[in-house]
Amino acid sequence: MESLYDTPTISSATLNEEFVWIVAAADAEELDQMLQVFHSAIVCVSQWRNTFAPAACLPGDILLLVFEHALPDRDTRMLRSLSQVCRWWRSIILQAPLLWRKALNLADRSAWFSEVLRRTCAVPLEVFFDVAEDYTGYAIPNLTAVMIDNLWRCASLHIEGYGDDIEEIVSSRTRIDQVPLLCRLLIRNISCSVPSTPDGEAGIPDSFLSVLAPQLTSLHLEGCTFNWDIVHTRLAPRSPLLSSLFIRSFHIQSAATVAQLLSVLELLPNLKDLSLQNSFVSGETDGDVPFRKVLLSQLTSLAFESSTVAGAIFLAALELPSLAKLEAAVDIGQVSTNVRQFMEGVHLATCKMAHLLLLHICYGHRILIFQSSHYHRFPRLRVTFMNWSLHSPPISDIRCTDLIRGIADVALLRSTREVKVSLPFSFERCLALDTWTYFLGHLKLISLISFGAHVPILLLRTLFLDAYHRHEGLQGQSQLLPSLEQVAMPSTPELEVLIDILVEARSRVGTPFAISPISRMHPRRTGPPIEVVRELMLEWLTNSVVDGIPGDSVWFVDDEITDSDDELDELLDDIDSDSE
Fold this sequence. Notes:
15-stranded mixed beta sheet; 22 helices; alpha/beta
């Protein structure tokens, strides 16, 4: 084995013999010079070799697009790493202010944040502030610096916070009157404990709503206390391009009357998407005099949450020729509620929508929903009635009748082909005797009826009596649902008996339909024989007085709390999955 200090040997097979002799004859100083030359040569060759790499062959604009796609929002670390790969990449990144705008992070150290802000040059800024993500303590000082010196550059401003942490921002507001580039403004969970500054100026968010923003297209206010008069007098008339408005309020102080809301909307002719959650109430004089119609010719999506009275007045005052989606959630548990008036408002608001072919009517967890079409498809209609409690023993409840009749009166549902109904008997027994007759007489094109967890047996009884009386020559008007071709039902023996009786009755008058069972897991039947069930069914169907469910109540799901989870989202997911 060679010693560490032995004279090195060089294989002549790998190096030129002359070069080997030159190296062997050189002293230490000459060898150092050789190493420096060789190192420079290796660097030069490596750089030249790298030019053949696929990434190095891409044009600068393509590389810039790749960087923009790969770079996460508000992440300067990755951008710094990319800039250290090679000179070519570094030159591209240093000359790309849009990349530095995307990487701008208020949580970075103030010195580095200022450097990143400088590298954005003069491009419009996208500023995101969430006090919950301020894990370094630098976010508020950095945001303060932006608000003082660079607010005029902001194209997108997202401010989310709560408590006293925003007081510094409030105190740092500038007296700028215009933000010419601002397109998107989101303020969430800021109900400033200081509603106004010592000099009498408005605090957040009123201070932002007062600033002139002629390019504003999207406004999102959630969990904020603000002044609707400022929205009406300052923001709305000076933001003609506003196309998306989302307001969700948790504070009664921020709720507008219907009159205030309409006065704002008539100043926003380009509005396309409107969402109002707990944001307006019925004023003392809202229902006294009809409002002048507010035309929103470009509005395609409307979602709101309110009382039935406020919702009815609001819908009746709108003219929406381009509406493709309506989602409404109304509280039915309030003392002053009017389902009939609200359903008239739904009819008026949706009269220009394309006809819908699918309808769900479902009840569960004190929530009643009727929906047409799937969640991701348009046109779409969904109405949710919250806090709908059914009384036991039953009392007179005209709301149920008004709802079923009101659905039948909505013009865009007249072409419905498929209906899925899931209503417990505790709901149906509140209906007037002719309610289902009225409903089926208006939705004449239904070809498929299916059932959910709650089988509407009074609806089936209405179809049976129509066919039975017609066969006996007792029915003078046109037959109900001559278009019915199929009934999809849970595969339970008692329900099968009831449907078989209905099929026989309709066959006698020339309108039979097919049966499509839905497989479900049910406990083993232990009741009376099927023949006995059939006799009890016929007796119940032909009896002029209906006191309850035919036979034993265990034959049908009747209680209104049958699901394991009481979440609204689960009920909505079930409806949407059935619509696919």
